[in-house]
Design the sequence.
């Protein structure tokens, strides 16, 4: 009876999460975790503090995470580095590198790779952020080009105005001479 209640609770949890039965589960709904994630929780608490660190602290943390990952290519170390790169402000943060470290196929070396729940959460967010940053960069470049073009037009306008003023001055001088000669 306990087994039936546990199975019913699991099916209810999938239904509430928007998934179908276990056999026909939607690919977007990952399978339920079979182990606890206390380490993931600690990583998230640690990552929450990155925005409050000063540049020196971020530099020290970045170097420590890189050295740790270089020495031990574990999934935990990879995810710690990914969280840092994804959340730390520039120049230590590197969204492209974080995305590259996340978007790995599952293997012995990569652990669950892109199928890890953190990867499944962060990959689309980082991809969207990259698209937005690219679009912003394009808009900023267009604005700089328009500003330069506007400056050039203003310089041309100023030069033309000077020429027009010179022509008007010559015209006035000619009118004054004609008026004086007519008297």
Sequence:
């Amino acid at each position: 009876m306990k087994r039936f209640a546990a199975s019913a609770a699991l099916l209810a949890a999938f239904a509430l999460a928007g998934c179908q039965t276990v056999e026909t589960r939607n690919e977007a709904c990952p399978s339920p975790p079979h182990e606890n994630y206390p380490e993931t929780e600690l990583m998230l608490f640690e990552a929450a503090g990155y925005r409050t660190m000063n540049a020196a602290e971020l530099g020290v943390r970045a170097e420590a995470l890189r050295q740790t990952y270089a020495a031990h290519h574990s999934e935990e170390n990879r995810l710690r580095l990914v969280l840092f790169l994804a959340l730390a402000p520039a120049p230590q943060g590197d969204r492209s590198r974080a995305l590259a470290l996340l978007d790995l196929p599952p293997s012995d070396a990569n652990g669950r790779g892109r199928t890890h729940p953190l990867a499944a959460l962060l990959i689309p967010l980082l991809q969207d952020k990259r698209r937005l940053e690219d679009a912003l960069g394009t808009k900023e470049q267009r604005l700089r080009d328009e500003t330069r073009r506007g400056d050039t037009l203003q310089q041309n306008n100023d030069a033309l105005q000077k020429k027009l003023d010179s022509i008007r001055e010559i015209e006035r001088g000619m009118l004054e001479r004609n008026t004086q000669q007519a008297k």
Summary: Residues 117-182 form the longest helix (66 residues). The chain has a mean pLDDT of 77.
